Amino acid sequence: MTTEKKSFETYTSLGMALDPIHVGTGGSQLGRVDNAIVRDPVTKVPKIPGSSLAGVMRAYVAMHYENGRNIQEREKPYYPDCAGLGQSDSNGAGGHCGQANCPVCTVFGFARDIDSDSGFAGLAAFSDMHVLLFPVASQLGPQWITCPMALRQTGIKAFSGLGELPEQEVLYRKTEEAVQHLNLGWLFLPVKPDWEHLNDIIIQKIDKLGAPNYIVSRLGVVSDKLFAHIVNNNLEVRTSVAIDPATGAAEDKALFTYEALPRGTVLVWEITCRNPKHFKINGQQVTAVDFPDKVRDVVAEAYPYLEHLGIGGMGSRGMGRLRVLNPERSGEINTSEREGS
């Protein structure tokens, strides 16, 4: 099937946290911290919602494009107009342009305006960002830990058949050191290098996704049960306090704590790009992009901004920057290697 005839392409992307990342729930959890981060309700492993990713990517793509354009004899910048909520004010200023030749509105969609009866869902859909490789301190230095569940969430067919580990209370790790046990935070686990999938599937595929060699060489696999405990017990927790502007000192009773995914966490997510030839906007054929891979290319314009401006909250406290690992490879693991293709 040619790219022109395909209805969609799904691309798997990998990103590494350059700073701790805090995407909060807006509340606290009893016995944890004041500002907790989002977790999967079933596995309890932290994640970044797709809505958070889509919103920040839209804003950064709008920043990327130059703003010297006019629509209906009115200046219409990509940013902030096409990056916002989409509703124009009472004077008609602001709001999404909704044009078939706008890369922001076609790729990310646009809202139905007050004087309009139509909207558009967008050509790019973002999954949640899941923890694929989690950094943990050990006596051998940082180790990046994963589990069969996290690998299966990539959707790659080679991982879909991974079952439970042969032993549950064991760390499977390719190692040349004469080490029989390794600590992962407060856990002290026996090390085994003989799981058949470790070398011939997992390491090869993660390397193909673009993970750095220093991470691949320190990769370990634990059971799904242990993975959630390892992640939640090794998150970064910070304490901050509000400053009294009058005195310049810490304000009384304004101490608060918040947690974050630590620096070095490797996250995986999927971008599903629809074929623009199958859609029309206000009766016009989409002209901003013509194939699913071009939709992906528009999304990729946000990657340099993501690396420097970040995602999530606490950006003024040194948090949020995320580097997309080898973005030129994002098309190598696509629909053809996914489960059920």
Structure notes:
With 341 residues, this protein is of the alpha+beta class. The protein has a domain at 8-15 and 49-126 and 267-322. It has nine helices and 17 strands. A hairpin with a 6-residue loop joins strand 12 and strand 13. The longest helix has 15 residues, at 50-64. It starts with 7 loop residues before the first strand and ends in a 17-residue tail after the last strand. The mean pLDDT is 87.
Look at the helices and sheets and give the structural class: alpha+beta
Mean pLDDT across the residues is 87
State the order of secondary-structure elements, H for helix, E for strand.
EEHEEHEEEHHEEEHHEHEEEEEHHE
Number of contiguous helices: 9
Report the count of strand segments. 17
- Give the overall shape, derived from the CA principal axes: globular
